[in-house]
Task: structure prediction
Amino acid sequence: MTSDRGTFVDLEHASVARGERVVLRDISLRIASGEHIAILGPNGCGKSTLIKTMTCECYPIAGEGVRARIFGRERWDVFELRKRLGVVAAEFPSERTLHTLGRDAVITGFFSSSTIWPELHVTDAMRERAAAVLDQLEAGHLADKPVGEMSAGEMRRVLIGRALVHSPEMLLIDEPSNALDLAAQSELRQSLRRLAQHGVGIVLITHHLADILPEIDRVVMLREGRIFADGPKAELLTEDRLQKLFGVPVTVGRRDGFYHVW
Result:
């Protein structure tokens, strides 16, 4: 099957189960390669399962009319697909990664490994690329700092560097502001804005309205495993829509291109 480089995700009537439970139901979604998009919804609505469907860790239930293509293909070797994707999980690094220096943690992105094992061959070009990515994220000072000694915000920037180091076509970020204080959230959002402005495709998954960058024009709202709404940010991020999505009264404000809710 030929690859369609113009489309990242092409789902049609896709339902996805985790164990015995169907988490996503009848999802139809198309995302262009290079697009900036936010997936917004309350906890438990299926956002993380949608990411795992995009990374082919989960596949839809087979059925008539069901289609699931990633970069134009229905089946992938997960390790081959990872060469085209950068994924930043909501969870913090594993125990092995905590003992790794920032530069080496970024380099592990070339190998999809938790640390640099002795059998892995690290080239000078890889080291140079890792240094360049850290500088791009204004995190060059973290190169020689053990990950376990970093703040939550510093860890997040290193993990983003790890996801970017192999120049992926799309960057998937799950709940980027988890466990970050206000200063770290602001720094992270500015780093992500710079990436978006330099043409990096971003799929951002969140339940925090303030995570949605000004550079993101499209929002997909997910509720109880179904797409609740899909469209331009300005049309969807209204008090009425958000109240129906989260099930509580909300007030929405906007400042410097960011939306806030309380």
